[in-house]
Write a structure and sequence with these properties.
By secondary structure, the protein is α+β, with helices and mostly antiparallel strands. Among the domains are: 30 residues, no CATH class; 50 residues, no CATH class; 30 residues, no CATH class; 147 residues, no CATH class. The chain is 14% helix and 27% strand. It has four helices and 24 strands. It has a four-stranded antiparallel sheet, with no helix packed on it. Strands 1-2-3 form a three-stranded antiparallel sheet, with no helix packed on it. The protein is rod-shaped.
């Protein structure tokens, strides 16, 4: 009976190749085990291929990274939670950096030229010593340019824009573009304090905080209001206007001509001799007060105002007969001095009065009437002008 062939029966020459194969597998298994455990190559791993192998850690939760130096510890890794690549140190690029999507910078970004064809969002500062050319949207918290910034689109700023040089535009500049319920203000700073040009949301008008000096012409389609007046009324006290024939000012009760004397508005119902008094007032003051009470804003007429009324509105004399009118100082040596300034009813003094009609007011006297002197004891109405 023959026994199976065993190692004992193998010749020494046939055993040697088998031992070599077994030792080779043991060495290879040890090397693969070490590479899998440590993922390191010493001295250097050279990859000479057009396609790099996939780097993955075997699960879908942890970050995937390339680490540079065990002691240095810097790395390029894919952050799963943020879905983006990240570097733990600065990145310096000697060539161009092109992004087909958005470019988000949360620190400082500087360079000779920055060109944006799409949208760029800045969470920090953008400082440029050269040119910045933006063809799309450029947004951020702060933009500092020490050179020239040009844009072919819109520049939208929701915060503050600060410029050490000039700001120029070939198109319009809009303030408060959202049309919010707020004042739109241009502020001018100087060593004496800031001044402003403001469009008031409350009054809907432009307001200067200081004087305005115009070296050329100023054309107004409305009136000019002077002084402390109610805004926006157009007829407040202090308003100046041109009627087409006359310059006038509004005193709060009526328009007064700057170029012509006051006009006759009527005579008082009550009569008085040459001693005019009302309350504690006497003379010219009393006569003016009596007219103001009868015709708001009026005063006792002067003779030249009556003559001016003949030229401007003679029909205002209709229905009037006569009345006292101030003439001032006498024209000759007599007591023809407005009844001693409208303080005397003595027949020895003379006062001027105007005759509007010769038929009791039915018709206006020819030519507008005439003035007389009469003794101050004769009761007369007071003529009032405004």
């Amino acid at each position: 009976m023959q026994h199976p062939t065993s190692l004992r029966s193998l010749s020494q020459n046939s055993l040697r190749p088998l031992v070599g194969v077994i030792v080779g597998f043991l060495i290879l298994g040890t090397t693969v085990s070490r590479a899998t455990a440590a993922s390191s190559w010493n001295p250097t791993l050279l990859v000479n291929t057009e396609s790099f192998s996939t780097i993955d850690d075997g699960d879908s939760t942890t970050n995937i990274e390339l680490r540079f130096g065990e002691t240095l510890g810097e790395k390029l890794y894919y952050n799963r939670s943020e879905s983006r690549f990240q570097l733990t140190r600065d990145l310096f690029i000697q060539g161009n950096l092109t992004a087909t999507g958005s470019l988000s910078v949360r620190g400082a970004m500087s360079g000779a030229s920055l060109r944006v064809d799409g949208t760029s969002s800045l969470y920090g500062n953008l400082t440029a010593s050269g040119s910045i050319e933006a063809r799309g949207g450029l947004s951020g918290s702060t933009l500092n340019v020490s050179g020239t910034m040009t844009g072919s689109g819109n520049l939208a700023i929701e915060g503050t824009i600060g410029a050490d040089g000039n700001i120029r535009t070939n198109a319009e500049l809009t303030i408060n573009a959202d049309n919010g319920a707020a004042d739109a203000t241009l502020t001018f700073g100087n060593d004496a304090g800031v001044e402003t040009l403001k469009f008031s949301d409350t009054t809907n008008r432009f307001e200067f905080s200081d004087d305005v000096n115009v070296t050329g012409d100023m054309t107004l389609t409305g009136g000019v209001q002077v002084g402390n007046v109610a805004p926006g009324t157009g007829t407040g006290a202090g308003t100046i206007r041109w009627t087409g024939t006359d310059y006038q000012g509004y005193d709060g009760t009526g328009w007064k001509s700057f170029t012509a004397a006051g006009k006759f508005v009527g005579t008082t119902v009550a009569t008085t001799d040459g001693s005019v008094a009302t309350g504690s007032l006497v003379g010219y003051q009393a006569a003016n007060e009596i007219c103001t009470h009868a015709f708001t804003g009026s005063h006792m007429c002067q003779v030249d105002e009556l003559i001016s009324t003949v030229d401007q509105n003679i029909n205002s004399f209709s229905g009037k007969v006569n009345g006292w009118a101030s003439m001032g100082a006498p024209g000759y040596t007599a007591n023809a001095n407005d009844c001693s300034g409208w303080t005397s009813g003595d027949a020895g003094y003379l006062g001027s009065w105007w005759e509007f009609s010769t038929d009791g007011g039915a018709t206006i006297a020819s030519g507008g009437g005439k003035g007389y002197l009469t003794n101050c004891s004769s009761p007369q109405p007071v003529t009032c002008c405004r």
